[in-house]
Specification:
Chorismate lyase; 2 domains; 3-stranded antiparallel β-sheet; single chain; alpha+beta; 6-stranded antiparallel β-sheet; Arc Repressor Mutant, subunit A; disordered C terminus
């Protein structure tokens, strides 16, 4: 801690502990000693220590339970709102992504898909439905539609790599995307798939990605377990 810094001590402590938790150096499930003992060990007042711990509670990194104590919980994956795949974001944040391909077939496009991809209704598209997990816990169900002109992507490749990495390897240069983010409750089937309670909160995202010629090359509609996932964006003043 830097006691001469204008940054409040509680915030310095909470930021340090957050980094330790997210890196795994403080493991998931770790039970902390009582706040008064922590404060004495670190050399802080109890109110300062309590505020630092509350910061971690508010971020969903620790939970307090009466009679049990304060314990580290599985940290959420924080995904920046940028043109990258979830697989890439998980790898870059030090997570260990795994993928199960649930559906992999060529289907006639419905109106929403054809409108998004700029193709005639009923034209064939490759539909991919995948379950993406990190640290052995399911995070997201990803449904993507690709124009038939992009060719085939094998199940084995999709289980090993992110979709955008596979597209770039074929010379498809992703240039931009439009996307919307929302929230809703999980259905019973979605809750079972993601290991959540029925009616648990889900984050949703729809995205249409374009290549450097302005041609739509992918339409995705995804759901994320809100208990383990959040979107993150930077805001700049004009």
């Amino acid at each position: 801690m830097d006691r001469s810094s204008p940054v409040p001590l509680y915030y310095q402590v909470s930021q340090h502990m957050e980094r330790e938790i997210e890196s795994g150096r403080i493991a998931n499930g770790t039970l902390f000693m009582k706040e008064i003992s922590l404060a004495e060990q670190i050399g802080l007042s109890r109110p300062t220590m309590r505020r630092a711990m509350q910061e971690l509670v508010d971020k969903g990194l620790i939970v307090r339970r009466r009679g049990v104590g304060t314990r580290v919980v599985q940290p959420k994956v924080r995904r920046p709102l940028g043109l990258s795949s979830l697989h890439e974001d998980l790898v870059s944040s030090g997570q260990a992504p795994t993928t199960s391909v649930l559906e992999h077939d060529m289907v006639p496009s419905e109106k929403e898909v054809s409108d998004r991809l700029g193709i005639p209704k009923g034209a064939d598209v490759l539909r991919l439905v995948r379950l993406r997990s990190a640290q052995n816990k399911p995070i997201a169900k990803l449904t993507n539609y690709l124009p038939e002109s992009l060719g085939e992507f094998s199940r084995a490749d999709l289980e090993e790599q992110g979709l955008y990495a596979l597209m770039r390897a074929r010379g498809i240069q992703l240039h931009s995307a439009t996307q919307s983010v929302g929230a809703r409750k999980a259905t019973a089937a979605e809750a079972r798939l993601l290991g959540e309670a029925r009616n648990a909160a889900l984050l949703t995202m729809q995205r249409t990605a374009y290549d450097d010629n302005g041609v739509a090359v992918e339409f995705g509609t995804h759901i994320y377990a809100a208990s383990r996932f959040s979107f993150e964006t930077d805001l700049l003043t004009p």
